[in-house]
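Lecture 7 notes: from sequence to structure.
We start with the chain below.
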Amino acid sequence: MYTLGEFIIENKDHYPYSIESLLRLFSSIKLASKEIHKEVNKAGLTRKIIGSSGKVNIHGENQQKLDNFAHKTFVESFKNRDVVCGIASEESKNIIIIEKHVNNNISEDKYIVLIDPLDGSSNIDVNVPIGTIFSVYYKKKKSISKNIITIKDFLQVGRQQVLAGYIIYGSSTILVYSIGNGVHGFTLDPSIGAFYLSHPNIRFPNNEKIYSINEGNYYRFSYGIRKFIKYCQEEKENRPYRARYIGSLVGDYHRNMIHGGIYIYPKTASSPKGKLRLLYECNPIAFLTEQAGGLATNGNFPILDIIPKALHQRTPFICGPKNIVNKLKEFINYEKK
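Predicted structure tokens for the same chain:
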């Protein structure tokens, strides 16, 4: 069985940049994820990390205690490795600059990291899978000589990602990632603290069986989305599909990628720009989706081709196997006629 480090070294020919810097970056991700794994697994024994922190984050949402813990854990872990020059977190209003790089030469192998430290944290007290989502870019070359880091370094289109992935904390803790050579999953063995290859070359199954959407918002959806839901429920051909929705993007997406299904978080009357964040959630999941043979779209445009305008930009989000995503797009396009 390959450990994560062994697997990266074995496949180093697929990575055109410094393999040493990639290993050091993953060292940060692994360390932070193991800290969070430890806290999540003792959540039922202590109330210190469960519930609201009493604060509201930049998005106007109640911040959970574990959100804040995960944010601090990942930021500190990235700061302690000499490969990251800037961080953007869903829990932080502004970008975080690693100060030691500002007055020094910023080489081309310094990473920009965007992260959702804890997706679905409101579910921690009911033992539902939660996760971390991360997206990694290289610093823009045009500004390297200036030794500065700006917001432009973070507002890169999704296709420029050099690494994307997530960690799911559930019945087991699994790290799933891609550097552009397929999607691979590694399960944590907590007895020795190592991640072992458990899900090599993950691909969306062709026999999609699941649709994941919050049907409680049915009457807030557009006509095309409502018609698609009815299509999924019809008793025809290989339908009806099964409705499965956790309310945790990582949990829903991981299940759908393994078993075959579409994830839908569309715009609504109350959220016309969508709800999910383009840079922290949609871009990395879209990168994985395409690497696993699927499609990711906002309903009109590929997610990975959207030009970001703001750090906390939102977007409608649809991802899954090509056949079922294209079927949903037919309903959306019919609605426009």
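Points to note: The chain has a mean pLDDT of 89. The chain has two domains: 4-199, 210-336.
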